[in-house]
Amino acid sequence: METQIASLRKERKISQEELALAVGVTRQTITSIEIGKYTASLPLAFKIAYYFGLAIEDVFDFSKCIEEMEVDNG
Amino acid sequence: MDKYKKVLKKRIVLLTALILLVVCIGIYDVFFTTETIKESFIFGFQLGASLAIGIMSVALMVYYLKILADDKKLKLQYNKENDERLKTIRAKAGMPMLFISSVCMIVIGIIAGYFNPIIFITLVIVAAVQLLIGVVIKQIYLRKL
Question: What is the pTM of this model?
Answer without folding.
Answer: 0.82
